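SAMPLE LOG
Freezer: B-3
Tube label: C17
Construct: single chain, 443 aa
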Amino acid sequence: MNAQAKPLPDTDALWMPFTANRQFKAAPRFLVGASGMYYTTHDGRRVLDGTSGLWCVNAGHCRTEIAEAIARQSRELDYAPGFQMGHPMAFEAASRVARIMPPGLDRIFFTNSGSESADTALKIALAYHRARGEGQRHRFIGRERGYHGVGFGGISVGGIGGNRKTFSANLMPGVDHLPHTLNIAEAGFSRGQPQWGAHLADDLERIVALHDASTIAGVIVEPLAGSTGVLVPPQGYLERLRAICSRHGLLLIFDEVITAFGRLGAATASEYFGVKPDIITLAKGINNASVPLGAVAVNRPIYDTVINAANPDSIELFHGYTYSAHPLAAAATVAALDIYQRDGLFERARSLSGQFEQAAHALRGAPHVRDIRNLGLVAGIELESREGRPGSRGYEVFLRCLERGVLVRYTADILALSPPLIVEPAQIEQMFATVGEALKAIP
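STRUCTURE (predicted):
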């Protein structure tokens, strides 16, 4: 342990999320500091953050403006109840988020995470149909390999088998799933949106015919699926989903927990693709991940329908959280949105996307690479799996990159890179070069 190293904590008490606990605790890896594009490890090494933490630190780490806003708010008002009372920063944060949402999606419900945002969106959709006299619309359509958090609603409409199997007997009834859009044989190594696959959206017509449109409340998809391995929507796919939903009166919900706040070079994926949903779920980059916060952006007709269906003295939606629009989280949101706008980070992401794409696809032909997918400042590198040991190669590349000073994310044998939007061109080259070195070093 060098002079800068910090003593390691006792690891026994913590049950870590989405982690092989025994594997980690046998050889712990600790991050103890962060600044800008870099983490600091417990032994004093600087590690380039190639993943924005978990897709969320879009403006880089430990921004002074955000820290000062949080500290100032904590001295003025540390907590205020959100039920039957309000505090000014909650309304300011909602107005600021609404301002960059697609036109009309200007009613904001605050949650504490992407998982809560997904469950909230489903409940709002059900409340809307009931308020308009169509309470029989109770079904939801998700998508295979979709990720919508870990609430029972989110894993019900989600389509990742490992997340579902332990809880399968207790998931929401009345859920069906579209096919996922990944086809390496037809669209491998696509740069940006694949040309093949728009027709996969048409399976929604089959599902509608099977269940009858009058029973379906909505469809929820990630415009770009991140956690499942960077699945980029084919050209025309989202447009077809929008048209089918409109034709049958289904609400279209975009899960933009990853894609919102600049990841694709626009405020939202809806803006980037030019496809407007009825509801958008948000979290992660909403306040640069400085204080837990999520949100749901809802179009005004949905809000008005739910609000106006109730007696003026009655609660219109029986839903909410103790920490909804927590003062510290709301203050951090306003500060983060100021940074995004002042520094032009969404535009910066768009300007860097071409170099990012080029650097990612330069790994084509590297050992073990099966496919490369990218859009905006997101890239997925799919590796050939070892026979009988799926995921082991991805884990080894992750470790070797970390040893070389770059943090990447791995999901089984798929590597994902999604750096903060402040990334420099030389850092983009470093990230992908490090992945290339790691690939050459493993069997």
